[in-house]
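tool_call predict_complex ligand=glutamine
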Amino acid sequence: MTESTNISDQKQIFGHPQGLFYLFFAELWERFSFYGMRALLTLYMIDVIFQALAERDYATAAVYASYGSLVYASTVIGGKLSDKILGMRNSIFLGGILMSIGHFVLAIEDNMAFFLALSLIIVGNGFFKPNISTFVGTLYEKGDPKKDSGFTIFYMGINIGGWVAPLLCGWLAATYGWHYGFGLAGIGMLTGLIVFWRGIQKNVFGDRGLPPNEHVLEKKVLGIKQGILVPVLAVLSAPLIALLLSSYKAIATDGMFADQNIVNVIFTGIGIAVLAYLAFEMYKANSKERKELFVAVLLTFFMTIFWGFHELSGSVITLFAARNIDLEGIMSAAQTNSLNSMFIIILAIPISMMWTWLSKKNWNPRTPYKFGLGLLFAGISFYVLAISGGSANDSGLVPFAYLLLMYFLLSVGELFMSPVGLSKMTDLAPMRLIAFIMGVWFLSSAFAFQIVGFIGKQLAIESTDKNVGGFETLTVYTDGFMLIAKYALGAGALVLLASPIIKKLMGKVH
Ligand code: GLN
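tool_result ok
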């Protein structure tokens, strides 16, 4: 074994391998670019790309949903290609380069460039996001108790990026113009890549993240080396995805595909195929595996409902902030996108300490109860926005405190579900299906954006008036939020009621 292969011999920082901190900063900057851009995306489509359309809210909701669905679905393919061919390091470089090009193309104000830029970010994220997350896990030996806290530190990095970026990109966009905001997102992504490259130079990753074997990149398919073919195909897929994104109009006005665009139809197909495959695997499995697999699918389903409401933050809630929240002297609508991450940074450590404290007293709730409570928190958070209309001023603007409280509650819900669920997936999936189940877990975010799109279209306001808002839009949003609150509270209550049964199915898994 050479010196470089042994991570445990290397310098530790706060008891963690130093490689973790390179991944922490690389992911921090990647999420900086991702969330800086996301903060501007809906408002940019409304104000620039679709500004001439009366149904610009509808078009924006549709494109936002397709983008979100594809940006998370691509991670399944990116993860697979990394396992089989590229290895995590190459995948992270390829993904990061494509994402930064995407952000810089977004700085060009042109409709076709816009769709192409989103596609480059979709493909890039597919290579970057799953692989940097798995990379963290490989820095620890199997069963190392430090791994969970390593992931908590990593989750903090994600949210530091998600907190700072909307503030800076939002400020740049408002002060100097949209393309400065998008440009800064691109610079953020490049910074992430430089950090990762420095880590490799300093040899902090040992032998982790290399391709599965020495020959795989050289192996030829269709006469081209795989190491070249994958990046070439990745780049070539971008214009095709751009075409999908730009066909945001509904396929039919009535019948089966009413109100659906081509991306919605593709996702219906993927959903059916994934469920059919899971049913087949459950049929093949033994009774213990079958129960655990069933619980993994249930938890993923609950997570999809939660993200479906949570991910409204970049679309309907940003619009609500722009049109109906009194932000005077506080922040811009784009900047409100930083609030979720801010609360995650404040709450992540106290909540994880709370679980440890409750565990010591034997009171730590089992996973399904945490999920039920998480959905209840989401419900209450939307209830807060729903009743905010009662405090509207003469211009139909509600106090900022409602939005702050809403994000606080939603972030508590997120911490009851997202990190807990991620670690349960690794416990519940049979070894042979672990990568697939992780893929399905990421797909929960992809499907969630289909819910986001559906709600966004329902709450679309028809107008080309730049200053649409006030009482004209207030009740559309608050009525919508009330309905969401009821669904989330209902879902949470059902999960809590079913928890004793789910708990039994989980056996020893906590
Ligand atoms: N906020 C987390 C991240 O950016 C999770 C987002 C999601 O899966 N929808 O990684």
